[in-house]
Amino acid sequence: MRRMKAINVGGMANPFSAGVPSGRENADLLDARTLAPGQNKRGWIQSPLFDLSLFTLSPLAGLFVILPALVSPRGLQVFIAATYLIAIPHYVSSFSFYLGDENLAYYRTRRLAFFVGPVLIFIAVMALRLTKIDAAVQSTLYVWNVFHVSMQSAGILSIYRRLNGGLLSESRFARASILGVNGSLAFFHIDRFPPIYQNLLRVHFPVWVIRDAFMSVAVVGLLFYLNSLRRRAKRIRVPELTFLVSSLLLFHPYLWVRDSNLATFGMLMGHFLQYLGIVWLLNRRKYSTVEGSGHQRLLSSISTKTPLLLLALVSVGSLFYLAQKSSAWLGVPISYVIVWNSLALVHFYLDGLIWAFKDPFVRKSIGPYLAPESHMAA
C-alpha cells in the first residue's frame, strides 16, 4: 500500500505514537458452568453469533479503520471514533475487576502488586516522557503489546480447547505458535517503527535475528501443536479451528500497511473487541444477580443491562476525549500523552495478574464462568 502520513491525532490517537450483544436469558448464559469437558456439543463459548462477532471475526474490524485512513483524510474520523469508543474503554475495563467484592478483597492481600505497581508504572512513564526518553516508552509498548495480544488469543483458544476436551499439555504449544507467528509479523518490517529500529542500528544489532528467532519459535510450536491436534482430530470442532486461524492471522496488517501506527491499531481492533467481549461475558455470568457492595451492584447493572453498558463505554471515551482536548487547550498535551501511555502499560501489567490462571484464586474466581472446570488453565 502507498505510504501515508503517520497518524497521530493530537499526539494521542495511538499509544505507540506519542456494542455488545444483549445475550440470552441468564440460565442460558450460565449453562457452560455445569458442563464437563467434552460435553459442550456446540463448542462455542457463548453462541455462534456472539463468538463469531466478538472473537473469531473481530479482526476484520481493523479493516474498517485501516482502509478509510488509507484512501481519504476523512478516514481519520473513523480512527478517532474507534480510539475513544473502543480502544480506551478496552484499556479502562481492566479496572472493572476492582469493582467485584471478592476480587477487591483478594487484591488488598497483594497491595504491592495491585495498587503500588500501577502507580510505579505511571511514575516511570512520566519520568521518561518529561526527560524526552520517548523511545523507551514507545518500544516497551510495542514489544509488550505483541506478548499481551498473543497471550489473550492463547487464553481464549484455551477456553475452546477445554470445551472440546483438549489436553492441558497443548497449551504451551499453542502459546508458542501464536506468539511466534505474531512476533514474526510484528518484526517483519520493524524498520517502519523507528523507536526500535534506529536504536538497534545504533548498537549494531542484527535486526533480522529477532524476526528469525520468532519464526523459529513459530515453526517449532506449530509442528508440535498441529501434531497434538491431529491426535484428537475427531474432537476438534469448527469454533476452535476458526479461532486458531483467526489468531494466527491477527497481525497481518504489519505485512501490507506501511504506517506502523496504523498497522498496530488495525491489528488491535480485533483484540479490543475480543477483550471487551470476554470481560462483558464473564461479568454478566458472574454478577447476574444484583447483590453485594455498591460498586459490585454497579458492575452487575452495567454487565446485565445493555443500554447502561453502552452508556458506560461512551462516557469513558468522552471523558478521555475531553481530557485530550483540554490538555491541548491548556498547552500541556504531554500530560495526556503520559496518561494515555500509562493506561496502556498498566492494562498490560494488570492483565498479567488478573488472568494468571496459575493463581488458585484466579482459577476459582474466573474459570467456572468461562470454562467447564474451575481449574481451567490458560
Can you put this structure into words, describing what you see?
Helix content is 68%, strand content 0%. The longest helix is centred in the middle third of the chain and has 30 residues, at 134-163. The chain is mainly alpha-helical and 378 residues long. Helix 15 (306-329) runs antiparallel to helix 16 (333-354). The protein has one domain.
Properties at a glance:
single chain, 378 residues, mainly alpha, 18 helices, 0% strand, disordered N terminus
Order of helical and strand elements = HHHHHHHHHHHHHHHHHH
Shape: globular
Over the alpha carbons, how many angstroms does the gyration radius reach?
21 Å
Spatial gap, N to C terminus: 37 Å
Describe the sheet with the most strands.
none
Number of domains: 1
Bin the helical content.
55-70%
What is the number of helices? 18
Low-confidence segments, ≥5 residues, pLDDT <50? 1-13, 16-40, 374-378
Oligomer: single chain
**Class from helix and strand fractions:** mainly alpha
Mean pLDDT: 87
Q: In percent terms, what proportion of residues is strand?
A: under 5%
Number of strands: 0
